[in-house]
Amino acid sequence: MRPAAPVTSSRDLPHPAREEIRLEGVLHALSDPMRLRIVRELAAGAGDELSCSHFDLPVTKSTTTHHFRVLRESGVIRQVYRGTAKMNGLRQEDLDVLFPGLLASLLAAAGRQATRLGAAG
Amino acid sequence: MRPAAPVTSSRDLPHPAREEIRLEGVLHALSDPMRLRIVRELAAGAGDELSCSHFDLPVTKSTTTHHFRVLRESGVIRQVYRGTAKMNGLRQEDLDVLFPGLLASLLAAAGRQATRLGAAG
User: Fold this and answer.
1) Would an 8 Å CB–CB cutoff place A119 in contact with chain B?
2) Domain A18-109: which CATH number of 3.40.50.720, 1.10.4200.10, 1.10.10.10, 1.20.1260.10
3) What CA–CA distance (Å, rounded) separates B74 from B25?
4) pTM of the predicted protein model
5) Which residues in chain A have their CB less than 8 angstroms from residue B102's CB?
6) What pLDDT, in 10s, does the model give residues A61-109?
7) For residue A16, which of A20, A76, B15, B43 is within the disulfide window of CB 3.0 to 4.6 Å?
């Protein structure tokens, strides 16, 4: 018998360290309407973590999982398991240290566009 | 013999109108290191148009052409023929009207990253 692996670390998901985050990767992550919507919802939550199941996106579950993975691997969000739920939070501090003002500017642009196009604000 | 086509209009390149520009498209355009570099050089030129041949990118000519096309079709740059040269300019006013402050914020982030990674500023 193998010794039981520590319950938490075995399910840890890979994240780039702050210094590994690249602007190009962040912009690629935000260049998709669904991913931009996820980030806007997380930002509106004022720092609260949201579970993947909170998001009701008009795409399949596997596509949703893909979008969260792109956001995690680019350094835009942090994903952690809490019990059976995968929880998501914006890496606001990391992004603000690397690129001061950028996230706020991107969110403002996204909000402005949503208003202009008549989508849900 | 066919009548000669008007020299200018026959070579006009398609551009999105300002209201057709989408944030997602702009971010996708800027999510590539070569395209980000082109935009930084255009921004450093303070409104001056630069010819494609001005840019000495470490990629093939056809890849360079592709990058300029992505930038044009997303609404980030305007490309016009002047004589035999294809000239490129940032659509700064259009972007500033749609997304106030975003371009400046993106350029600042790109500059900060270049400094941090020790690339040519």
Assistant:
1) no
2) 1.10.10.10
3) 5
4) 0.87
5) 105-106, 108-109
6) 889 999 999 999 999 999 999 888 889 999 999 999 999 999 999 999 9
7) A20
> Would an 8 Å CB–CB cutoff place A76 in contact with chain B?
no
Q: Pull the structure tokens for residue B115.
A: 């400094």
**A–B interface: beta-carbon pairs under 8 A:** 71
Give the number of residues written for chain B. 121
Q: What is the ipTM for the molecules in this complex?
A: 0.86
- Does B31 contact chain A (CB < 8 Å)? yes
The set of residues, in sequence order, having a beta carbon less than 8 Å from that of B64 and lying 6+ positions away, is B34, B52, B55, B57
CA-CA-CA-CA torsion for B109, B114, B115, B121, nearest 10 degrees? -110
